[in-house]
Specification:
Elements lengths: L2 H7 L3 H19 L1 H36 L1 H5 L1 H11 L3 H13 L1 H13 L5 H10 L5 H12 L3 H25 L7 H9 L6 H39 L4 H9 L3 H8 L5 H14 L2 H10 L8 H21 L1
Helix pairs in contact: 3-7, 3-12, 5-6, 5-10, 6-7, 6-8, 7-8, 7-16, 8-17, 9-10, 10-15, 10-17, 12-16, 13-14, 14-15, 15-17
Amino acid sequence: MTQKSKRKNKFTFGETFSIIASIFLFVLLMKNSRLVTIEASNALKTCATLLIPSLFPLTVASELLTSSGALEKVSIKLQRISSKLFGITKTSSAPYFLGVLGGYTSSCKSAVILYENGEITKEDCESVISISNMPSLAFITGFVGPEILNSASDGWILWFISVVSTFILGIVNKIFRKSAMLSHSNVTAINSKVKKKKLSKMIVDAIAHSAHAMLLICACVVFFSVLIRVLEFTLISLEIPFEIQNLMLGSLEITHGISICQGIDNELLKRVLCAFFIGWSGLCVHFQVIALCDNSDISFKKYFLFKILQGLICATLAWIVF
């Protein structure tokens, strides 16, 4: 056997880790099969009664806004400012503003559509997804503020902190961006190649693509809901300290992490942790973003680095403000 064939037969670190993690997860789920069934059922009910009704219409609307070009025209006055601040093209700025109001699903889907249509570069798409990824205005002001912090005004403050963190990330993106932006003439040339669709075709495509996106998102939610419940049961049996359990499980899914904060007596710590979970958003959200970009060649190295940074920025700003 040659030296090259021996190297091919060897597992890389990533492959070895994936195999071990898969076996561990399989055994864990099989051992707690009853718990898995109950939690999966509850997660599906949550998807049907809360997630799909709130996200599906918004996702369809955001895709229509993007594919029709209406979003770019609406945000045209702000595009020059955001382009200079964040180091992205003017066209790439449109999904950013959609993300600030509509949340990560809207911004991610819009950025991917623009990239697939050839209207923005791969690097611009990666930058927009990295800096505009935040929970929706409705989630922070309608759930986190009144339900968790018992203060609607604190919810608005946390939303404002989240928006400021995206501005900071945008400036960091400009500083460390490697390649230069496309000139306005290049963007125009790319846009001219895109065929305009009929309104009926755009509506049908928006519904079909959004339905597919909902299926991917709900699958991620069900999986991580089950994983959190099983890990929670396991960590309790291993007598892992409660604080470490909360941090580990909260980092997996944003709603679970923020709900944990409700039981914290220290008001400052409660708000700082809520801000961190809002900035980090949780692995469940990250896998949803990856799922939405499934057919593209987008890299997520910058995305994960920026999400860690955003969590720390939000926590720091919350500590200063509160």
